[in-house]
């Protein structure tokens, strides 16, 4: 935070979102914080606490391995460990900043750990459900081994349209890299992985709309 009350890192993210609907950040979390989250994920995964992911919202969930192949563990902010507390503290600070400076109206969030075993993927999709527009920003932070190589695959591909022309942006899941993008705008996919791919993923959400 500088003397003007502005956070340069947060301001970069905001500028990116305004100009291109996504932001790629290399230093949102420290290396120590990333490694602590990675260890927390691996402990839970080794203890068989993850479940097979599904598509659709909670009322209409269905497992379709031809579309999505990862395993997930939903995080509960009320019972987190020290690594997860640091994560949520920083996410909450970022959310407060967005609401104060951009009037985003973010009132809720949901996050989970995700593991993609070798050979799995997530086909092209949009991070919103029919008749549910609460998800505003999608966030993913990669927790892979520090020597992750491009040939391991698992890149996040964002499909961005400018002046009617669609371009595909491939973002490799390098340890500590964080990607933030507009949930209701950018379709995306996770390409097939050759090595186990780890991340913490979630959404910043608005209040439910009140229907009279």
Task: Walk me through the structure.
The chain is 24% helix and 31% strand. The mean pLDDT is 91. The N and C termini lie far apart (42 Å). The protein has 212 residues and is an alpha+beta fold. The longest helix is centred in the middle third of the chain and has 21 residues, at 82-102. The chain has one domain (8-206): Jelly Rolls (Sandwich). The strands form 2 sheets. It has a 7-stranded antiparallel sheet with strand order 1-9-6-11-4-3-2. The protein has a 4-stranded antiparallel sheet with strand order 5-10-7-8, with no helix packed on it. It is globular, with a radius of gyration of 17 Å. Its cofactor is L-ascorbate. Residues 106-206 form the Fe2OG dioxygenase domain. Keywords: Dioxygenase, Iron, Metal-binding, Oxidoreductase, Vitamin C. Pfam families: 2OG-FeII_Oxy_3 (PF13640). One of its GO terms (molecular function) is peptidyl-proline dioxygenase activity.
CATH architecture: Sandwich
CATH class: Mainly Beta
Summing up helix and strand content along with how strands pair, one would put the structural category as alpha+beta
CATH topology: Jelly Rolls
Number of domains in the coordinates?
1
Share of β-strand residues: 25-35%
Quick overview of this protein structure:
Helices cover 24% and strands 31% of the residues.
Observed structural traits:
212 residues; alpha+beta; Jelly Rolls; seven-stranded antiparallel sheet; four-stranded antiparallel sheet; 11 strands; 31% strand; Pro_4_hyd_alph_FE2OG_OXY
